[in-house]
Amino acid sequence: MNDATDPALGWLSLIDGEPWTAKESDTLQSRLWSLLEKQINRKTQGDSTSLRVEEVADLMESITFTLATHLRENGLPNRTLLTGNINSLFSAAQKTLLRILDETRQLYELALRTVIPLRSRSLRDTVRGMRAFFETYDVRLLAQHIPAEIDYQLCRPVPDSMLGVCYIREYLHRLLIENELIIRFDPRRVVALLRRSCPDYGELLVNLYEPVAANVIGLSLLGGGETLLEILSMQGEQIRDLLARKTFNEAQALLQGAAQDACQHLSITSVASKRYLAEAAEAFYPRIVASPEGFRGVFSVVTQLV
Amino acid sequence: MPDSFAMKALHTQALVAAQELRKCNEISERYGLTLTETQIQSLVQSRFDALRFTGRMELGGGILPKLIYAFCDSPHISRIDYSGTLAALQELFYTFKNESEDAMSDDELMEAMKRCFNGKAQGSLEYLENLSISDLYRALTGNSDDEDDDDDSDDEDGYDE
């Protein structure tokens, strides 16, 4: 029996590669079972021979998440799990998570130094509150948990499939990419843009990057002026007409080109940041061309240029 | 989970548990208490039922051997109801583990149950199953009101008519 999505194997079912055969699945489960016994003993410290099923499931999910992360991070084939000492492999996998944790802590320190909340309560609270993650994250027994309150919404959310420290690392990575664009502008212009976009943005769960990125892309499509962040209603109509005349693929190419140009004008050189802006730009397309006034939901237009 | 592995794991656990229960007979027979092979198999099954019923999972041979060692010298367990009492104690044990949110270790909980069973309960399983976790804590810490006339305190609290 091939069982590529065996729930008992958790995250290990999702690793790229040939699906597990029935025999391999049995072998792997017995190896995981031995790890589970050790983890249960660590959890109970020998005080209890039984645990609630939910707790056991949590422990098993932590084991499979830890191993899957180790294989993915180190480019190891999934069959690595079937040979050699499983305890040594698990120890190595936990070290991999610790390395990711160190890397994530550095990203966090960078975020603390550089991310400007621009009066957004959710952004400020999320960044501050993330400190709790580093104080309580249990890499040993509950590596898949995310002990942090993350309210601030990213423009391009982290996929739900990411867990534990991998989620936080990716979240911070994306937050720093978003911040890299925002800090290119005079904060007063950004705040003015955000207020045009949503007057109560400071108190709401509003992403700061998206309105900025939209106007940057819009101005780039019109040939420049990104640093001003201001689009007239008439310019919004021009952008809509420009995109509406194109096929879907042509429009996507146009938006991607606009993202590249904008990054060049704004001296954004990182590949990840360029890709992020291009993906955001592509996502604007259906909203811009959805209706004659669709652009108003994307660009924060001004009545006159200052 | 593929059936083959799950079945093998359960089968192995059942074999280990039965073997441990057979060994327990060597101790318990000093008190005139032994389990027949049928009772052993039935207790092994009741362990899986109790775990399923209480939503718990256990590795190894289970809690029954420890329960036997703890309770076999009780004057309130007779040869006739030995097996049934063990099954009931086992289920109560897992239930109390849940109710106490695992705050008590296996040994602590067993000691508390034993003190209550041999003390106030006088071997009554019904009495035991109506105990609260704080009753068990009191029994464990020696603050049991076994010797007190607890009718007085109940009256003072005034919750019961």
Question: Overview of this structure, please?
Answer:
The complex is a heterodimer of chains A (306) and B (161). Chain A has 306 residues and is mainly alpha-helical. Among the domains of chain A are: 10-91, no CATH class; 185-306, no CATH class. Chain A is 59% helix and 2% strand. In chain A, strands 2-3 form a two-stranded parallel sheet. The longest helix of chain A has 29 residues, at 86-114. Mean pLDDT of chain A is 91; it is low at 1-5. Chain B contains 8 helices and 1 strand, in the order H-H-E-H-H-H-H-H-H. The model of chain B is unreliable at 147-161 (pLDDT under 50). Chains A and B meet through helix 1, strand 1 and helix 2 of A and helix 1, strand 1 and helix 4 of B. Strand 1 (50-52) of chain A pairs antiparallel with strand 1 (56-58) of chain B, so a sheet runs across the interface.
Question: How are the SSEs placed, and which strands pair?
Answer:
The complex is a heterodimer of chains A (306) and B (161).
Chain A (H helix, E strand, L loop, with lengths): L21 H23 L5 E3 H22 L11 H29 L6 H9 L1 H6 L27 H19 L4 H11 L11 H13 L9 E2 H12 L3 H18 L5 H19 L11 E2 L4
Parallel strand pairs in A: 2-3
Chain B lengths: L2 H26 L8 H18 L1 E3 L5 H8 L10 H18 L6 H13 L6 H5 L3 H9 L8 H8 L4
